[in-house]
Automatic annotation (TrEMBL):
This is DNA primase. Its cofactor is Zn(2+). Monomer. Interacts with DnaB. The gene is dnaG. Binds 1 zinc ion per monomer. The keyword Lyase does not apply. The keyword rRNA processing does not apply. Residues 260-342 form the Toprim domain. Its EC number is 2.7.7.101. Gene3D superfamilies: 3.40.1360.10, DNA primase, catalytic core, N-terminal domain, DNAb Helicase, Chain A, DnaG, RNA polymerase domain, helical bundle, Zinc finger, CHC2-type domain. It catalyses: ssDNA + n NTP = ssDNA/pppN(pN)n-1 hybrid + (n-1) diphosphate. SMART domains: TOPRIM, ZnF_CHCC. Contains an N-terminal zinc-binding domain, a central core domain that contains the primase activity, and a C-terminal DnaB-binding domain.
Amino acid sequence: MIPQSFIQDLLNRVDIVDVVGRYVQLKKGGANFMGLCPFHNEKSPSFTVSPTKQFYHCFGCGAHGTAIGFLIDYSGMGFVDAVKDLAQNVGMVVPESDDKMPPAQRAEYQAKSMALSDAMTRACDFYKLQLRTAERAKEYLIGRGLTGEIAGRFGIGYAPDGWDSLRTVFPDYDATALVEAGLVIDRTDEEGANRKRYDRFRDRIMFPIRNTKGQVIGFGGRILDSGEPKYLNSPETPLFQKGSELYGLFEARQAIRDAGYVLVTEGYMDVVALAQLGFPQVVATLGTACTAIHVQKLARQTDHVIFSFDGDGAGRRAARRALEASLPYAADNKTIKFLFLPSEHDPDSYVREHGTAGFEQQVQDAMPLSQFLLKIVTDENDLATPEGRAKVQFEAKPLLQAMQASSLRLQIVRGLAQLTQTTPTEIETLFELASPAARVRAAPPRGKRTPPVGLELQVMRLLVAHPVLAADLDDDALEAMVHFVPDNAAMLLQLVGAGQEMGAQASFAMLSEHLRASGSDFDGMIAEIAAEPESDRDAARLELAGAVRQTKMRMITDELNQLAQGGMKQPDQLARYRELSLKKDQLRRDAEEEIARR
């Protein structure tokens, strides 16, 4: 787990304007920067980035957060990956509790990764440059209906038909990084002598593969003429793992948000050709089966995933693997479908023959996960016999066990029960399903907490906007506030504790990230403050002091009234009454002095 202190230090060092500016065109507008929101369609900019708050906020869709939150929402990174990305850009090394690597060794590892990344970038630039004069390669791409614009968007290039063409890019052609990046191959004889080095990719159309940060991490190379392999991928390297990456995801992110779904295909040309034909929300697996990591990445981008496969046997087997990878992420708020085109078509040819509307109809009519699951377990079994129904249940058991308890799983269980002449409860018992959905009773509703109002709301807003002010609150102030806000005492104490722990460097962005990570109830308040102009800290300190005085005054007044109503018959009660009266007078004088200073 990354220490909170490191997160604070990181947010102090990064500039959110620089981070967001990598992906969104920003223009100065008063104290803030403005741009078109990357999270929804808009023609007039309502997306603001505050350099003083180190926070972004969209007045159109309400999206907001820190630099870390932006990378998570925009790039689909996980929290740890977003932190590592930001840390790398400011020269920080992320500490990890399970990281036993010595600092010097970790620094060496990071230096090697940067060398590999630099090599891939330089090679990509070289291949793009070569495409300009490669007539055969250009004729092939034009023949596939691609324009120069779409080739430029995806960074398509050409690897010349030479054994060591990369020597012109890398004067040190013998560098170890070229082998480790998968750009060249070392071949030696049986005795390990007479080493010969040559380019891995030769006479191929080159498709650069980018990670979620836009960095080139690998290539897919397509042969121009006949030959095998038709597609040659980069090998597994420290930068590139085929089972974790999706071709075109970096380029498709905004289109996926705009379309409301992502279409997963089987090849590079499917992605590029469909983008050319008006479907830019398409990605592809990299010559490997769909994995759980692929599905997890897609689920971060959208709630609607559609897998497209050929209708032949190989396509059905690939679809089965995609189904199995998707089951742990299938949920009531997710839609996962499977599209099977006629065997004579791939997505590119189908759109060209039937048009955009025809392909859109195919997408709309794709088979839901629930239907596909039941189809694959029943297709080759005879439901008219007990043996056939038992075989269906046998094949369905591991699939349903892979799903989380949900309404969707219950619907599939009910469908399976009907097909196999059993009951949902019998299937859940037989399959040993965790938290059987058919027998779970509805949980009682959570008690409604009164939202903060008045002074308590004022204090909380001040502490969220300026968490450094938490240091101004002493035990008496906290006691007074908690006395009047029993419903929200935990929220108040959480704010104060977080602000005091962060110390003098505490900021709105730091606290917001801390509250987001802890799953607190402050999101609405954070959004409101993010949308407001930056407030002056000194003015906020005076406002907080005034609110604290009022709260203390209320608590003292309440206790004085209780003592008076009790008759103050005991000496200690009388002494307490006098003590409280003096405190009340002092608070009144403090308020008058503050007014005079203003």
